[in-house]
UniProtKB/TrEMBL annotation:
PANTHER family: INNER MEMBRANE PROTEIN YGAZ (PTHR34979)
Gene Ontology cellular-component annotations: plasma membrane
Listed transmembrane segments: 21-37, 70-87, 136-158, 164-182, 189-208
Keyword set, alphabetical order: Cell membrane, Membrane, Transmembrane, Transmembrane helix, Transport
Protein name: AzlC family protein
């Protein structure tokens, strides 16, 4: 197979692997469009949000805090905290993209989402002989069905949301979405402990203004999760 044919094959393989994620991306984007419209954002703001950020969890976090009239600095800090995992993703992909042109790495960073990273890192580990152009082509293919459809789904949700009468109040959309996102992720004791601390902390500190309690609860949850993981690691080391 020629080099150009290998690159094309890598792209379409990534595209095929990314297609199943439409089952998640489309409803999630629709829901964000509806929730953002109901929160008072106009169409340009909703689309600007999704196009500039492309991070569902961070967008819902920001939307929730904006609805609570939190200061801008808290909105930004909370959204950044939610998206800190992207820094770890970038570190994992650096050995694969390190010598690529800056514009290609910039595009890869812009389109990086959980799905594209998970597919790419798994593919690179499965096929260690892939060249850098093939890796970039696969990554582009994995992003192709995900990111554009996030924009389209957000637009559709925003247009639909504007037509939903106020009596059908969709204020519950954001918390329900977070429950759906968090539930499947509670796979270990550390995850469960972090979730429990965050819930209890948020409730106990709910009297604090502008989402400050939420930030404190999130920090406490992260510390708790890390400490539980260390405790589990020490127990395993002792047993061995």
């Amino acid at each position: 197979m020629s080099h150009s044919a290998a690159i094309r094959a890598a792209y379409w393989r990534g595209f095929r692997h990314g297609l199943p994620f439409l089952l998640v991306i489309v409803p999630f984007g629709l829901l964000f469009g509806v929730a953002a419209t109901k929160a008072g954002l106009d169409l340009a703001q909703v689309m600007g949000f999704s196009i500039m950020v492309i991070a569902g969890a961070a967008q819902f976090t920001a939307l929730q805090l904006m609805g609570d009239h939190a200061p801008v600095i808290l909105v930004l800090a909370a959204s950044l905290a939610v998206n800190l995992r992207m820094a770890m993703y970038s570190a994992s992909l650096t050995p694969h993209f390190g010598r690529a042109p800056t514009w290609q790495k910039a595009l890869a960073a812009y389109f990086m989402v959980d799905q594209s990273f998970a597919l790419a890192i798994n593919e690179y580990e499965t096929r260690p002989a892939m060249s850098r152009p093939e890796k970039l082509a696969y990554y582009a293919g994995a992003c192709s069905p995900v990111c554009p459809n996030w924009y389209v789904a957000t637009l559709a949700g925003a247009l639909v949301g504007a037509q939903i009468p106020p009596e059908f109040a969709l204020d519950f959309a954001v918390p329900i979405t977070f429950l759906a996102m968090i539930g499947p992720a509670l796979r270990t004791l550390a995850h469960v402990a972090a979730a429990a601390v965050s819930v209890i902390g948020a409730l106990v500190l709910s009297f604090l203004p502008s989402g400050v309690g939420l930030m404190i609860a999130a920090l406490a949850a992260m510390v708790t999760g890390a400490q539980v993981e260390l405790w589990i690691a020490r127990r395993k080391a002792v047993r061995q």
